[in-house]
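Morning run. Coffee first, then this:
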Amino acid sequence: MANIAEGTKRRSDRDFGHFLNIAEGSLEEVKCYIILSQDLNYIDNGIFLDLFSMSEEIGKMLQGLIKKLTT
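And here it is:
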């Protein structure tokens, strides 16, 4: 979220797109921590599925924003 907010203050769509790409990388980091949390039994399978599903949906929304920006 912070990467997207920072990107909105940039002067060009290209700069904004750069921050959207950074946001995608940050999302992948979060997904990694979700998987790790399940592997270490910090969260149960139901919570894992909910969190992972939400992260996938956020990824789709982010991809849609990137696509809209580049077309």
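The radius of gyration is 14 Å. Good start to the day.
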